[in-house]
Amino acid sequence: MLVSVMGSDNEAAVDFITDPSSFTITIPADQSSGTGTFTLTPVDDLIDDDGEMVTLSGETIPSSTLPMMQTNSVSIELIDNDDSPEGIKLELLDSSNAPLSILSENDGETEVTVKLTVEGGTTYSTDTLVDVSVAGSGNPQVDLVDFITDPSSFQITIPAGQDSASGTFTLTPEDDDIDEQDETVSVSGSVSADPTLSITTAELTLTEHKPLPTLTISGDPNEVKEGDPASFSITLYGRIASEMTVKWETVDGTAESPDDYTEDSGMVTFEATTDPEHVQVRMVEIPTKSDTEAEENETFEVRLFDVTTTLVDTATLVDTATVTILDDNKAADEASQNRVNEEVLPKVTQVIATSALSAITGRIDSVVSGAIPGGLNLTSGSSLYHALKSNEQALEDGTFNLAQVLGGSSFAVDLSSAEVGEYNSGTEGGGGLAVWGSGDYRKLSGDEDNEDSKVEWDGDIFSFNLGVDTPVRPDLLAGLSVSRSMGSFDYTDKTGSLDLKGSYKSSMTGVHPYLNWSLPQLQGVNMWATAGYGWGEIEIDGDSGDKVSSDTTMQMGALGASARLLSSDTWIPGGTTTLKLKGEASLAEVEVKGNDGDGIEPLTSDVQRLRLSVEGSHERPLSRGALLTPSVELGMRHDSGDGITGTGLELGGALRYVHLTRGLTLEGHSRVLVSHEADLEDWGIGGLIRLDPGAYKRGLSVSVAPAYGNASDSVARLWDQDILAWGEDDQAANDSLPQARLDAELGYGLPALGGDGLLTPYVALSLSGDDSQDYRLGGRLDIAQSISLSLEGQRRERPTASPDHGMAVQVKLDW
User: Fold this and answer.
1) Which of 5, 704, 780, 796 makes an SS bond possible with 18, Cβ 3.0 to 4.6 Å?
2) How far is CA 644 from the centre of its chain?
3) Are 179 and 212 in contact (CB under 8 A)?
4) In 10 A of CB 136, how many CB atoms?
5) Please, which residues bridge with residue 740 across strands?
6) 692 and 674 in contact (C-beta within 8 Å)?
7) Is 90 exceeded by the pLDDT of residue 29?
8) Strand order of the sheet with strand 102-104?
9) Hey, how many other C-beta atoms are within 10 angstroms of the C-beta on 35?
């Protein structure tokens, strides 16, 4: 039998090889089968086809004994393992087969080769016919043919099994006299038999060989002072075939309209010209805004858009210009300095008036109470050690403030030869001349939480008052006080986007005559009055501006009275009932003269204060010389004017038990701020247990004083509280959790120096609610009631710091 091997597809290539391609198989006699072999080798090509069937068929060879017979056929499938091609890449080549992407307008006739390359590493199994077309962008404003192609479309065939093919066309650019943009020639392909077949597009740029006109915009100049107009130059250089319009608009930068400049937009027109060097300039002017806020220099832009012709050089096109608005620092500084003055001056006025008035009333109270006029107190603390300890850090880092230490100092010296009793009663026609002085130190700060003010400031004022007075008759005291106040503050003005910082200094010298009229025969009526005139200067030095100053003047006046309204043994049986009234009113005005419009403007600040208190007490004698004294006091205070204002009403009460024979004192007191316009909350309770050896001070002395909250005696806190305590910045302190405190001291008085002195060793303890503890150990030596020496050691423990220790020696002289 003859066996033949054949394939189903022989068009593209030989897909397999057989050896042999036909052969014979003999079936022996008396056998039902026979076998034969051949070799089949598939061809592994890169052609993407559908695979092929290999078919084996046979037929008998005719003989004398066996006629020809057909047999069945069998097939073997050859499966193609090649991926389909990814598409066709279209390239443009010049005559040297180099890539071609740019032609100049004056290059003349050029033969362009279009090369098609099958991508993906495989080929098509059939011929691929590609339709190639050539098109260009042209100039939409000019009815001209910008290039000629021959032909404009043609076909390229990629043979089956081949990976590339090529064709050519002729491109002739039109070399005209028109300045125009570069143009693009686009060459694309498609396969009509398979529209989905991906073919890339190639582009060829026809460049303009003549210079194109340039269009730019620039600030003229690039910086302007705020308030001055900003000018912009829109410039066209070169020739254009037809009239051209350009639109423009302002664009916010760090400068924003309408706050910093006036938003605007418009259009400019350029005329057609054939002069290649012709320059056309159009100006645009934008108003800027002037203000008194401190801010950084700011910028805004003018942008060109909608150019109605493409006949400009896009490579050199400048379509945006930026102008910087320079902040007017002088105007901002002057406005800031006046804002600072308006914020600080009223509060400084209050302090200056309060300091002078407090010094005078303190002096009058000491005279009326019969205090010995000779004495010196160098510090307001309980000891010199406390004063130095509170300034320990300042001593270490070199920022020690002597004014702060002297803030509570005072002295009084009797220059006459009168005895104490004579000084108190006075003599007809005069006598009892005395000199006195006091210091006052106050830290001040602006209200950081006040939304109405953007000025933050802090600093201090030191005032010193020096006075002289004499009782011109037994019931009339006349005196003169000279005051000197010096304040220094740092400020930050946050009104604008840029913080302005600087310093504010004030000084004031004042002269204050005063009178006190005492009428003991009229229920202890005591009246006083004072007036004052001052002159000084303020100086404001901004970090970014000039130092400016102005003269100031001050006028002030005050009067007050106290009286015992009632003292009766019958009003409440069993004791003496006393009702006292005390009140005062004051006003002060500070005028800033200004400096002729160069910085500080004229300003007047006035403040008023009214204080009134009523105290009632009932002293009831008990057995064995003891006294029980309940008391109640109501106080009112009103501050008005340009400074911090407010009205407060406070109620206080106390119960005191004194046993003179045993030297025992028991006391409890409390106070509460009943109401205040600023909604402040303030209260406190306290007590005292004291055992002392009496006037001779020899023997055991014990004192224990617990307190909770602001536990000032009766309504003294409302009466004496600093004028600035009514600000909202004290709200947090007043509303904070009350603190507990315990002060205790144990001492024993011993005779010393042969009986002329008294030595008192003592130990003391102070505990506070923040887990702080102070331990003190020391001794006091008093000599003849005029000299006091003390030596004290202290240990201080704080929860957030290591314990510290100190030692202090204090000398006190009275004369």
Assistant:
1) 5
2) 26
3) yes
4) 19
5) 708
6) no
7) no
8) 102-104, 202-207, 183-190, 128-136, 153-158
9) 7
Instruction: For residue 158, give every residue at least 6 positions away whose Cβ sits within 8 Å of its Cβ, in sequence order, or none.
Output: 88, 116, 118, 124, 127, 128, 130, 164, 165
> Per residue in 248-277, is it b (16+ CB within 10 Å) or e — as a string?
bebeebebebeebbeeeeeebebeebeeee
Is residue 157 within 8 Å of residue 132, measured between CB atoms?
A: no
Residue 511 tokens read as 């002269």
- Please write down the HEC assignment for all residues of 342-375: HHHHHHHHHHHHHHHHHHHHHHHHHHHCCCCCCE
The amino acid sitting at 408 is: G
Domain with CATH 2.60.40.2030 in the chain: 214-313
pLDDT at 383: 45
pLDDT exceeds 70 at position 509: yes
* Residues in Cβ contact with 29 at an 8 Å cutoff, skipping those fewer than 6 apart: none
Contact 60, 71 (CB under 8 A): yes
The CATH fold assigned to 332-417+430-727 is Lipocalin (2.40.128)
Cβ–Cβ < 8 Å for 520, 499: no
Question: Distance between CA 502 and CA 491 in Å, rounded?
Answer: 6
Which stretches of 74-159 are DSSP H helices? none
Contact in structure between 680 and 644 (CB atoms under 8 Å): no
Q: How far apart are CA 590 and CA 347, in angstroms?
A: 11
Q: What angle do CA 284, 289, 294 make, to 5 degrees?
A: 135
Report the CATH architecture of 87-207: Sandwich (2.60)
The reported pLDDT for the residue numbered 627 is: 92
**493 exposed, middle or buried (CB, 10 Å; 0-12, 13-18, 19+)?**
buried
Which backbone phi and psi does 344 adopt, to 5 degrees? -85, -40
Q: Evaluate if residue 142 carries a pLDDT over 50.
A: no
- Residue 751 identity: P
Instruction: Report the distance separating Cα 370 and Cα 412, nearest Å.
Output: 13
Task: Look at strands 547-568 and 576-592 and give their pairing.
Answer: antiparallel
How buried is residue 770: exposed, middle or buried, by Cβ count under 10 Å (0-12/13-18/19+)?
Answer: exposed
Strand 576-592 to 16-19 pairing: unpaired
Helix or strand (DSSP H, E) at 734: helix 731-735
CATH 2.60.40.10 domain extents, the chain? 87-207
pLDDT score, position 212: 74
pLDDT one-digit tens code per residue, 317-338: 778 999 999 887 777 777 888 8
Reference 619, options 631, 611, 610, 607; nearest CA is 631
The set of residues, in sequence order, having a beta carbon less than 8 Å from that of 112 and lying 6+ positions away, is 92, 93, 94, 100, 168, 169, 170, 171, 187, 204
CATH 2.60.40.2030 fits 214-313, yes or no: yes
Instruction: Supply the pTM of this predicted model.
Output: 0.60
Rounded alpha-carbon distances, angstroms, from residue 394 to 324, 391, 402? 47, 5, 10
Q: How is 481-536 classified by DSSP, letter by letter?
A: EEEEEEEEEEEEE-SSSS-EEEEEEEEEEEEEEEEEEEETTTTTEEEEEEEEEEEE
Question: Residue 644 half-sphere exposure, CB side, CA atoms within 13 Å?
Answer: 23
CB 255 within 8 A of CB 267: no
Q: What is the 3-state secondary structure (H, E, C) of 369-405?
A: CCCCCCEEECCCCCCHHHHHHHCHHHHHHCCCCHHHH
pLDDT in tens, 254-293: 999 998 999 999 999 999 887 888 999 999 999 999 887 7
Rounded CA separation 144/146 (Å): 6
